[in-house]
Design brief:
There is one protein chain. The chain is globular and about 65 Å long. The chain is built from 3 helices and 37 strands. Helix content is about 5%, strand content about 40%. The protein has a single domain, classed as YVTN repeat-like/Quinoprotein amine dehydrogenase (Methylamine Dehydrogenase, Chain H). The chain has a 5-stranded antiparallel beta sheet, with no helix packed on it. A 5-stranded mixed beta sheet has the order 2-31-32-33-34, with no helix packed on it. Strands 3-37-36-35 form a 4-stranded antiparallel beta sheet, with no helix packed on it. The longest helix is centred in the N-terminal third of the chain and has 18 residues. By secondary structure, it is mainly beta.
Length: about 500
């Protein structure tokens, strides 16, 4: 390791250590500174809209059109339109028709709250009791993003409560407590995978035993339609574990997933792709029949898969942390099996944010822990890492930590700057430019290509602080961010 890299590692370790022991660094003050042959449709089949009605946007991929946002921000950063104090949680807001829904928790209640997206003014809210306590010390709020249709709002709480309310009034239509309906073994972090709509079915990764890892409910009534995935899927399955080449089902397994499902039409067949704890499963949305499975599981017991599968033509990209890495598989023409194109345990280990494909190259964050976090570009054809950055690749000697204020300073001028490292960040592709959000609230706009990372502007906001884990939500020229206490609306149309 070079002296420069050593200094950078030391400085990063100091920052993370300071955060871990509750130093003021946790609050960073503002320093504004080729077409596939297969017919494929991923996500909703409705026309592309400016709305963000579901997890990772209108297509479920973290990609939206560019409505004319600026790539040159004022020195004070893009202006804040409104800011609202909210409860805890890791779920992103969803927006449809000028209305925003946020799912959060205050004291012992989970709250589904609807606001005007332009002003933050309240429209309606509904709440219910929650006793969830995170066993690892993370917050106790909901993790799943609201799902909005023209007249319904669906939410999935941290304890497994499914709620459907009228989108106009907030009046409850139906609810189900899935852990009471199914046998769901205790798992790590609460419910974390957002349901999807496929026709008139709500597809939910329930994590139930023995064969209810994935379930479908009638969207209008909440009635159970089918249950699938579990013992019948994985008992006797071929693994990549040297000491256990064939998996033997015990009945005590967690079937839970923290990766939200995604639907796609591949080779003319509609499939729902689910990255379960054991691996990738494709189910037929009509009846839950398993089309194919692919083992993709950490050998570590305390591990999760949380990034969503990425569908690219008739191929699927998977990634996970906990020493798992990535895989690229191709769906065979029958739609009943996949062929592994490559498997790499080191190239990209996505912890929770879903990578984004652009023209045969994938951009995403790798690393289980913050100090390991890197934004990487990998070539899909080979799985090779093309480039990587931690958000700051300059001379670490230029950075200083103000122990009194917790600010990161540029030694050359003594001014505070946004936290320099992204950690395990998240991405949203707006047209041809990426919004990059670091987990300590640093927001950057960048152009990315196989030739490298080119940052256009960077900012931070005094109202947003660690941990900032939900992906940036963009509707038109407005950006919506949240941390554990604040929901923020930012205007991205203002130019420098």
């Amino acid at each position: 390791m070079s002296d420069r890299e050593s200094v950078r590692e030391t400085l990063m370790s100091r920052f993370v250590l300071a955060a871990a022991i509750g130093a003021a660094i946790v609050h960073i003050p503002c320093a504004r500174a080729a077409e596939p042959k297969a017919a494929v449709t991923a996500g909703p089949r409705a026309p592309f809209r400016d709305d963000w009605p579901a997890f990772l946007g209108p297509l479920g991929t973290g990609v939206v059109r560019d409505a004319g946002i600026s790539d040159r921000w004022p020195p004070t950063g893009p202006p804040i339109v409104w800011s609202k104090r909210i409860g805890t949680g890791y779920s992103a807001p969803s927006i449809r028709g000028g209305k925003l829904v946020i799912h959060h928790r205050l004291r012992n209640s989970e709250i589904v709250e609807c606001l005007r997206a332009d002003t933050g003014e309240p429209i309606w809210k509904v709440d219910y009791a929650s006793e969830y306590r995170d066993p690892y010390g993370y917050n106790n709020g909901p993790r799943c993003t609201p799902l909005l249709t023209e007249n319904r709002c669906y939410t999935f709480g941290a304890e497994g409560r499914l709620l459907c309310v009228d989108f106009a009034s907030g009046k409850k239509v139906w609810e189900r407590d899935l852990p009471k309906d199914l046998y769901v073994p205790q798992h790590f972090f609460g419910v974390g995978c957002t349901p999807i709509l496929e026709g008139d079915l709500l597809i939910v990764l329930a994590g139930g035993q023995p064969n209810s890892g994935v379930v479908a409910l009638r969207a209008g009534t909440g009635d159970m339609v089918w249950q699938s995935v579990g013992k019948d899927t994985w008992d006797g399955a071929t693994t990549d574990w040297p000491t256990e080449p064939k998996y033997r089902w015990t009945g005590n397994e967690m079937v839970v997933s923290y990766s939200s499902p995604i639907a796609a039409t591949i080779h003319g067949k509609r499939q729902v792709l689910c990255l379960m704890r054991q691996g990738l499963v494709s189910v037929d949305p009509r009846d839950g029949h398993v089309n194919f499975k692919y083992w993709f599981c950490s050998r570590d017991y305390e591990s999760v898969s949380a990034a969503r599968p990425v569908v690219i033509g008739d191929k699927i990209f998977l990634s996970a942390a906990y020493k798992v890495g990535s895989a690229f598989v191709e769906v065979e023409p029958s739609g009943r099996a996949v062929k592994e194109l490559w498997r790499n345990r080191d190239n990209l280990l996505a912890h929770w944010s879903t990578p984004i494909d652009v023209g045969g190259f994938l951009y995403g964050f790798s690393g289980r822990h913050e100090q390991e976090g890197e934004l990487r570009c990998i070539e899909l054809a080979t799985g090779n890492v093309v480039w990587k950055t931690r958000g700051y690749d300059g001379d670490a000697d230029r950075l200083a930590l103000d122990s009194a204020t917790g600010q990161i300073l540029d030694r050359t001028n003594g001014k505070p700057i946004p936290f320099p490292f992204f950690g395990r960040g998240s991405l949203t592709l707006v047209g041809t430019r990426f919004l990059v959000l670091g987990e300590r609230g640093t927001l950057a706009m960048a152009e990315m290509s196989p030739t490298g990372y080119h940052e256009l502007c960077r900012a931070s906001f005094k109202d947003i602080e660690y941990p900032v884990w939900p992906s940036p939500v963009v509707v038109g020229k407005r950006l919506y961010l949240r941390d554990e206490n604040t929901l923020l609306c930012v205007d991205l149309s203002v130019k420098k």
